[in-house]
Each structure stands twice: as structure tokens, then as C-alpha cells.
Specification:
Blueprint (H helix, E strand, L loop, with lengths): L4 E2 L5 E3 L6 E6 L2 E5 L1 E3 L7 E6 L2 E5 L3 E3 L5 E3 L2 E5 L4 E3 L13 E3 L2 E5 L10 E3 L5 E3 L2 E5 L4 E2 L6 E3 L2 E3 L11 E2 L10 E3 L2 E3 L5
Parallel strand pairs: 1-4, 2-5, 3-6, 4-7, 6-9, 7-10, 8-11, 9-12, 10-13, 11-14, 12-15, 13-16, 15-18, 16-19, 17-20, 18-21, 19-22
């Protein structure tokens, strides 16, 4: 098999229009770019990345729409955060259906060492499971909103540069209800 590496000289690789759905990317490498996505169409749905690699990005990608999936992907060498998920409805407790499963996040937050985690679920109903987070200056995951699930993830060597939060951060808002962490492990994180 041959390796295909996608490189762009623009500020983003792709942007989906309103109503874009059912697109599947598999075994691709995306590299050396400002960010992966532009402003995604709010009605876009079921965009799937399987066994893809993402490295050397300078800004996190804001993912809107519903049911985006990143499965068995590798993310490395990011200047700040990696993925920010929007979607679903906190008011109606409607889940976004976004899924991150079996992915590794390594060596992120080079320049923007605080505020931008590897994964930032917002709104409602993002699932993160069987992922590994390692080598970060600050927190690895930050939850904002309701009904997010983080399960069977490993956090190692995060919080290298800061002590003002946890490896997984759930905010200070008491209306963020229904978030669940299950079976996660934490190793070599600085105490808070």
C-alpha cells in the first residue's frame, strides 16, 4: 500500500457546506496546516474518519453538525488544542452523536499551553472512549455542557507545565449535568 499525505497551503483542508452528510475518510494523513476544518455547516452529519493521522496543525478545529466520528486515528504535534465539538442541544438535552474512539493524542499544546485541550466537547452528548492522551502542557480534555461520556481512556504525562486544573476538566458550572467518566486511568499527572 502507498501512503497518501494531504498538505494544503490554505488555512484549512476542508469545509463542508450546509447539509453535507455521509462522507467517509480512511487511511489518510493530514499534515502541516493551520487547522483541519473551516466553519463547518451546522447541518452536516455523519462525517467519519477511520485510521487517519493528523499532525503538525497550529489551531484546533471546530466541529459542528452531528455524528462526526474519529475512529482509531492518531493526532500529534499540535500547537494548541486539537478538536472542539459543538452540536446537540443543552436546552432539549439532544445528543450531538459525535464519537472519538480508539484514538491517540500525543504531544499537543506546544504554543498555546492553556485553554485548548486535545478534546473539548461542548453542548450535549459527545462520547470519547478507549483513547490515549499523553505529553501535554495542560489538561487533555475539557467538558462544557451535558451528557458527555468519557470511558476507558488513559491520561499520561499531562499537566506538565501547569497546576491550575486537572487532566480531565469539567468546569465550574453546576448546570453541566449528566457527564460521566468511567474506567479511566491517570499516570504521571501533576497533583492539583
Amino acid at each position: 500500500t502507498e501512503e497518501l499525505v494531504l498538505v494544503s497551503n490554505r488555512d484549512k483542508f476542508m469545509q463542508f457546506e450546509e447539509g453535507t452528510h455521509d462522507i467517509h475518510f480512511e487511511n489518510l494523513t493530514f499534515a502541516y496546516q493551520e487547522r483541519l476544518f473551516g466553519d463547518m455547516g451546522v447541518d452536516s452529519k455523519r462525517i467519519v474518519f477511520d485510521h487517519c493521522a493528523f499532525h503538525s496543525f497550529t489551531r484546533p478545529s471546530a466541529i459542528k453538525g452531528t455524528a462526526y466520528q474519529f475512529r482509531d486515528c492518531a493526532f500529534s504535534h499540535f500547537a494548541g488544542g486539537v478538536l472542539t465539538f459543538f452540536g446537540g442541544s443543552r436546552a432539549r438535552l439532544t445528543a450531538s452523536g459525535h464519537l472519538v474512539a480508539g484514538c491517540t493524542f500525543r504531544d499537543f499544546q506546544h504554543l498555546k499551553q492553556t485553554t485548548y485541550p486535545a478534546i473539548w466537547p461542548r453542548e450535549c452528548g459527545v462520547a470519547v472512549r478507549d483513547c490515549r492522551f499523553e505529553d501535554a502542557a495542560h489538561n487533555a480534555i475539557r467538558l462544557i455542557g451535558n451528557d458527555h461520556f468519557v470511558g476507558w481512556c488513559q491520561f499520561e504525562n499531562v499537566l506538565r507545565e501547569t497546576l491550575d486544573c486537572g487532566a480531565a476538566y469539567a468546569g465550574r458550572n453546576t448546570s453541566y449535568l449528566g457527564n460521566l467518566f468511567l474506567g479511566c486511568s491517570f499516570k504521571n499527572t501533576k497533583p492539583v
